From TrEMBL:
Gene Ontology CC: cytoplasm; nucleus
Enzyme Commission number, as recorded: 2.7.-.-
Region (Disordered): 281-303
Taxonomic lineage: Eukaryota, Fungi, Dikarya, Ascomycota, Saccharomycotina
The UniProt record lists the keyword Transcription regulation: no
Swiss-Prot/TrEMBL GO biological process terms: inositol phosphate biosynthetic process; phosphatidylinositol phosphate biosynthetic process
Top EC group: transferase
Gene3D superfamilies: Inositol polyphosphate kinase
Protein name: Kinase
Family (UniProt): Belongs to the inositol phosphokinase (IPK) family.
Coiled coil: none
Sample GO molecular function, one term: inositol-1,4,5,6-tetrakisphosphate 3-kinase activity
Top-level taxon of origin: Eukaryota
Organism of derivation: Eeniella nana (Yeast)
């Protein structure tokens, strides 16, 4: 766990932006923290990933470790087990039915950076990697159901599937043009906060050919200047290439893990940041001395993104390191196919 950032008992509210995954995820009131209920296996994977970064960052190329692609891991929260938290229950459970405490008093919560913190108009796309969508613990009914999902979608043919999309509503009251086999009025929903969301039926209706149009919609379906759009696409291609090399060197099995694509759709913020968008954010190092200094100064250590777009690997409920077994072919194939499609959008 990164010890250089401390979080105190703080109110949590429902997550503002979510395009896929289970409901119930939360964020801190200031938006800097992301919190979700997690099982032991996912927490262990975060701990194991952090443990693989033993040396200072200057000895390891940025992007070469899986943790470089994961949201910053801050620790866990156990509301049902902590006397301190119980005594401050009113700070966590503020009467809202959707607060952290109401989700489950006996659950352990994973606390991560909120990768959207600092974005003004985040456009988000969740892409599930791999063609195998079940693990060894799944019952027979789920295995058959997930096999059918893979067979009938791009999960099987391309080893990736778009699971959810959120983009700013820049279409002047209209919906985006329909894509082959996909009527927008069936899968696209206008939200009161100025976004369009695309549900899981959108991704499941896409084919090997039409998925390119969906990617183009995400990267080009906005009012950003073309030079900014081109920069975003170029940066994501570099990120995917770097992640591909990382996955080739990582002996792991990840089932139903997702790539989260985020881009800033506020052109003024691009101007404010002088169009500087790092391909990768600097690696954060565990430094106990810094932690002690922050405690003395009373600093909380918020993580504010300086990026204008980012790529994150998320969802590790069915993930484990597999020493001696080589890379995960499903992940590799999915990233390969994404790279091929990204070359023509």
């Amino acid at each position: 766990m990164y010890k250089g950032f401390l979080f105190m008992v703080t109110p949590f509210v429902p997550l503002q932006h979510q395009v896929a995954g289970h409901n119930g995820s939360m964020q801190s009131v200031d938006g800097s923290l992301f919190c979700k209920a997690a099982k032991h296996r996912e927490i262990k994977f975060y701990n194991d990933s952090h443990g693989k970064m033993m040396d200072p960052s200057d000895s390891l190329a940025l992007g070469s470790l899986l943790i470089d692609w994961m949201p910053v891991y801050l620790g866990t929260l156990d509301p049902g087990l902590s006397d301190e938290l119980s005594s401050k229950k009113s700070d966590i459970v503020d009467g809202n039915q959707n607060t952290l405490g109401k989700v489950g008093q006996n659950e352990t919560f994973l606390v991560l950076e909120n990768v959207l913190y600092g974005y003004r108009k985040p456009n988000i796309m969740d892409i599930k990697l791999g063609n195998i969508l079940y693990d060894e613990t799944a019952d027979k009914a789920k295995v058959e159901r997930m096999k059918e999902v893979s067979r009938s979608t791009t999960s099987g043919s391309l080893s990736f599937r778009i699971c959810g999309v959120q983009i700013s509503d820049d279409f002047h009251g209209e919906l985006p043009a329909s894509i082959e086999n996909c009527k927008m009025e069936d899968v696209c929903h206008r939200k009161p906060d100025g976004y369009l969301t695309f549900d899981k039926r959108f991704g499941r209706s896409l084919t090997e050919t039409s998925v390119r149009d969906a990617l183009r919609l995400f990267f080009r379906g906005n009012c950003l200047a073309k030079v900014i759009q081109d920069k975003i696409v170029d940066n994501f291609v570099i990120r995917l290439q770097t992640l591909y090399n990382c996955l080739l060197d990582t002996e792991v099995r990840i089932i139903s893990g997702s790539l989260l694509f985020v881009l800033e759709d506020d052109e003024q913020r691009w101007k404010d940041m002088e169009y500087e968008d790092p391909v990768l954010e600097e690696r954060l190092i565990d430094d106990s001395d810094d932690e002690e200094e922050e405690e003395e100064e009373g600093g909380g250590g918020s993580i504010i993104s300086s990026s204008l777009s980012c790529l994150k690997f998320i969802d590790f409920a069915h993930a484990r390191y597999t020493p001696g077994e080589g890379y995960d072919e499903g992940l590799i194939k999915g990233v390969e196919n994404l790279l091929k499609l990204m070359a023509d959008i």
